[in-house]
Amino acid sequence: MANWPPLAPVPPPAVQSAIPPQDWELYIDAWILLLTLRIEASDAEFTEHASTDESAVTFLTSFYDQLASTGTPGLHTGPKTRILRKLCFLLTRRLLLDAPTSPPDLLGWKYLGSMCSCYPSSSALKKLLSEAWDKHEETISSSLEKAKTAMTKQLAMSSSAQAPRIIPDIRLLTILGSVIPACGQALMAGSDFLDTCCEAYQAHKRDDFRKVLVAVIYVGLTSLLKGPKPNLSLLLDQLFSLKASTGINAPTTKKEPTLLSDLICSSDLLVRLDRYLISHPQKRGQDLLSSLRAYQIESNVFHHRYQKQKKKLDKGKARATTDLPQAEDMHIHRMSLVTQIQDLFPDLGSGYIVRLLDVYDDNPETVIAHLLDDSIPPELRDLDKSEQLPTTHSTAPKHDPFPPRPTPPQISSPPVQPRKNVFDKDVDLADLAETDKLRFGRANPDQTADDILADRSKHAVNKAAIMSALATFDSDDDERDDTYDVADVGGTVDATTTDTDADAKQKADELDLTLFRTYKATPALFARDSATRRSQPRASLKRETGMTDEAIEGWAVMLARDSKRLAKLEDRLSLSVVGPGGTGLMQPEIKPTAYRRPGPKGDGESGSETDEPAGSGSRGREGPGRGRGRGGRRGGGAGRGRGGNGGGSGDGNTTAQRQRKEENKASRANHNRRQQRAKKVARAGGMMG
Hints:
Layout (H helix, E strand, L loop, with lengths): L12 H4 L4 H19 L3 H7 L4 H15 L12 H17 L11 H10 L4 H13 L1 H21 L5 H17 L1 H7 L4 H12 L3 H17 L8 H15 L12 H8 L2 H11 L3 H17 L32 H13 L5 H10 L4 H10 L4 H4 L47 H4 L16 H6 L4 H13 L27 H23 L8 H4 L2 H10 L3 H13 L1 H16 L75 H15 L2 H14 L5
Helix pairs in contact: 2-5, 4-6, 6-9, 8-11, 9-10, 9-12, 10-12, 11-12, 13-16, 14-16, 15-16, 17-18, 24-28
GO molecular function, one term: ubiquitin binding
Protein name: CUE domain-containing protein
Pfam families: CUE
């Protein structure tokens, strides 16, 4: 075969709209046949004719250019369009990877970006572009550099009217950078493009234009963390450059949305950076991340996260409607929007304006701006601009699936016999109130207390109501005794511990148990030297407990000094291990309620159950006596009650104890015993004799 039959390019949308559907189907069949011929050719034949087949390159560029735009329904609908898209992808793959010299037009950034927008989330496309980048890196990089330079000049020189023309090109760069991380890294090389985007963001106030700028910078910065060779240093440099241009922490900086604030508030850039720094820690990156988080909190009022709107599934349960609503069925607010636009553009029909409002989310300012800039999409520009809303020509009523039905007649029911009640003769104050009048304030503002007391007209009624209420009151009915509800033994009547204090105490106990478990496992972790403080286990313990190095080391020092606290933690640790399923038997500690005077603290116990210090005599033998004697001569121990030191032992505290005893007698007499008896009698529910 000498040469392949040429491929005709895809016509523009204006020409496609004039082609009949039957002829368009023939065009698609011819394209499928010629593409199949090139794809199924042998390697030798393809190598011979691919370099001279310019018609295929022209067709592919026109096809993806039209397919990436939204105004070409002929390439998006139909049973054969999917086959055509698949064949175009296969031919592109063969031209990029199998041809001896790949066409430069197929390696341009516009063609690759259009392919990425036509095949979203395609793993085959990502694999193809990755292989094409490895094979033709210089050509694609050169095309990206030219595009970045041209885009920088357009952003620097563009006005508000020219901004919408740059948006499609920036979107193609964004999509290409998201599919090929190397392309995003090429966009972030240097600072000209980033600085120009920052200035353009401040110069233009259009939301769609700002979103496009934020998207391309986000894709470029996140691509620096992807690929086999992440470039964290360049990412931090670019973020520092954005921070410096924004003027964070400067006293003269105006509080307004910036490119950096929109970037960190509307995307997950800081989350990605934090995740990367956890696996690759760096002091410079951690400091920058902390400052950006503080700036994010200050700028949250200006931005919101970009969330993809979920499409609502049409289940076919709504009423059938026409393409345009009837004029009388349209909401009055929608009609006011139509009249606002018609005041400025009287030549436009109401139906055409309604279609514009549907596209631009009922925003008349956006519609007017696009009409003034002449930036209406081609599919709306080709419509009839004098189209009016349809009017009702028939007087027949519309079909209502739920027409009103007459109410069925009421069925007479037998009269209900009045029921008798024991409270029928009681006086209800609500029935005596006047319900036919509504008053604000007092019913009779001139009436005084003396007048009310002197009025005896309702005395009998009020007295009857009081006596009825007293008759239902049972004075012998006592409330439930909740003295011991707090704890099984030794509970208090009034619990003063609030939920907040209980939660704080529980957290402190859990923290002590965590520290003690670590202390038992590795005591060297609490050493007070610099090597231990810089170790990874110490850092993990600090993150787990939220404590500083000084607090952790001080906790260990105080624990070593307090033997009782050490014993308590040992008991708690053993109980937590014994518990089923890993949960400890954490029983509440109930302290004794009886008063115990603190004794002298020595080498032994800090206090005892007796009121006198150890070593005092008793009347019994060698042990603590249980009687009420004044102490034994043999000095066997302290007596219970008023037993003091016995028989002439050489204790120096005897004189002081006697003096204290006389003082207590003189000051309080026997009142303490009386008060305790009164409490016991009251708790038992009796009366004092």
